[in-house]
Predict the structure of Catalase.
Amino acid sequence: MQEKKPKKTTNEKVEQLGQYYTVDEGKDLTTNQGLKMTNDEFSLKAGERGPTLMEDFHFREKMTHFDHERIPERVVHARGYGVHGEFQVYESLERYTRAKFLTDPTKKTPVFVRFSTVAGSRGSADVPRDVRGFAVKFYTEEGNYDLVGNNIPVFFIQDAIKFPDLVHALKPEPHNEIPQAATAHDTFWDFIANNQESAHMIMWAMSDRSIPRSYRMMEGFGVHTFRLVNAAGEAFFVKFHWKPLLGVHSVCWDEAQKINGKDPDFHRRDLYEAVENGDYPEWELGLQIIPEADEFKFDFDILDPTKIWPEEDIPVQRVGKMTLNRNVENVFAETEQVAFHPGHVVPGIDFTNDPLLQGRLFSYTDTQLIRLGGPNFHELPINRPVCPFHNNQRDGYGRQTINVGRVSYSKNSLANNTPRPVPAEDGGYEHYQEKVEGRKVRARSESFADHFTQAAMFWNSMSDVEKEHMINAFSFELGKCETESVRIQVLEMISNISHELAKPVAENLGLPVPSQKPLLTDKASSALSQMNTVKKPDTRKIAVLAADGFSKELSLWLQTLKSKGTMPEIVSDHHGKIVGEDGTELEVKHTLLTADSVLFDAVLIASKEGRSVTFAKEAPDFITEAFLHYKPIGALAEGNILLESLVNIKGAGVVQNNIDAYIEAVTEARFWDRNGKP
């Protein structure tokens, strides 16, 4: 055996590799021009709560470099899937805004929605523990409006200058490109521990919200505080919500890990099949609105992107419905080439001084320039407005418009000074005239300083089951960290949120329990717990375990289940068709070798295990796993023989020979009070 050579130090590696290699550890922070910087935390603003200034060369250099770091796939949100649809407002919102698509209840506005994960590459799996993107492009008669959000209403950071740092930390570690599409590693948690503005977001990320059952069953949020402006020039602060009509549902963590192996396309397949089947996903648009006079009324800063507006304090008004009803024809040409930007607005929608939003207004266009090869990405079919557009922009990579005429400047006489600006009263966009004053500073408003109270409120709002899931999530993620000091730092951070959370996580990690901190708040919000969501049987997928010789009752059950909106699919020991005792034939959708319980919402047993060797070998494990994931289990006819042979499969949600009770169980979806855990 060869003797192992001692590992080279980082500096020794750099010396050997040459001048283009460098080590940053222990060095002073500089710009790419070598200028030493006094601050890397805050962008330059006009006053602590004022807008970000364009002269902030450090922010622009840092963000520009970050925006151009990857080609051709997106740096973040690379793994995505899109679908077309329409939006219609219920009644005019002209009291709040002049945006025509929000003031004309007779108009259906075309939309394109792209759902995505954040951390993984384009080829990663669909169900990691991750934030989900929820971006909507409205093709309005006044131009395109992009509502670019997530399925979580808050974000990790408060200032856009920190975004490159966040993404560098959550992406695979650069020395070995591991792990893919996962945050369970040292650099991510080191960032969290040392940037504690992330405390609220990480609670959401460790909750069931980050492993949704389906794109169709998750909420969407605009995250930032925007402005609505009406025709009279009155402004209102607003947060945008998408409320799924199927409710908000998730998978178990054990399921998520298995789904990623069994079907890495689980979410995109689910969305595609739902639209193809005519089970069109629907969301209601919700608005939380605060009059300008109430800006400082609350115990949090309404411009802080790490804070929610509790729905009990500022109710969500449901104002319209979005229906997704057409799949894309070409994933690359549509889903991959679609270009969103929060700065794509229409008259009646404006921005605030949220420092994260301010940075995004710069970053998105800059990103599209490198990703789509030039300034004409707006001319790609998926990005083109449905209304005409005219300006003096010409040439550039990918130009498709052939402009006729000699004039491409303003002002001019040769074209009678056209294209001409449009007054606000005729539909021209006019920025809200907010008064801004303050010294140029790199600072953050003190009103952004509380990082833990809303995180504690989120914890207080969880059911016991959801709290258990979060404890397990923190224990899993931190258990994957190799550096003990990172684990200890995170434990200290979450001890500020809840001792009830920090104590069991510390015990699971074999580390000292942090000292108990004073209780920050006893406030809770029922809107935050998924236990309070809408529950429907619609589109719930049922694995029907059946073999040749099945009872004639099965056909009646299948008919009833379909009439209630569920999706029963035959899982058998062979493909093709199975024949019942009365000669009825049923098409087999899956076999016990190609299907898995984690891909279904419920199980219905319609045959006994003695029907075949494969059935006897595979069906018991299929049923047991579904039971351990707290799913409904039903049995009819001879399927009861198989169910009763599995002596531990009993209790809540296990139904025999009662179709109505079984449908109720499928509607409930999970039965958390069962004994036994996956």
Remarks:
- The domain at 52-379 is CATH 2.40.180.10 (Catalase HpII,  Chain A, domain 1).
